[in-house]
Sequence to fold (155 residues):
Amino acid sequence: MFIEPGNLQDRELLLALDRYLKVDPEREGVPTYYFNMVREGSSIVVGSISLRIGNPDRLVLYRGHIGYSVKPEYRGHHFAARSVRLLTQLAAVHKLNPVWITCDPDNFASRRTCELVGAEFVGIIDIPPEEEIYHGGIRQKCRYRLVTIESDLPF
Fold:
């Protein structure tokens, strides 16, 4: 169920809802929110972040609830970590606890993002050959577990 996310922002970063798909076939067929990371007071989009609502095994093991990307020219400002923090309240309202974040083992920036938000490194998992991402050349994923604070409060 889609929930109006309300005002997701910190001192200079705003998560602007781009779209919501009730069933996103590219994201394990689960409802997915898509946000643009926008510099507060401007229209500059520095990256994007998504929140997938659901717990299918493939999502929990290989894909993660949260996916993010920061444009190269805006890296180094912790926009991804700040965006993940902003999304944790929305995740909690959807009863996603824990939230799983995955990344490639050699993606040190993404791994650092997970550490900055307080996610616990669970381990590295091998991708089974029958998985779609395996055919794209991805053989392993790091798994991080992020505990959210449950909330029934509307935004």
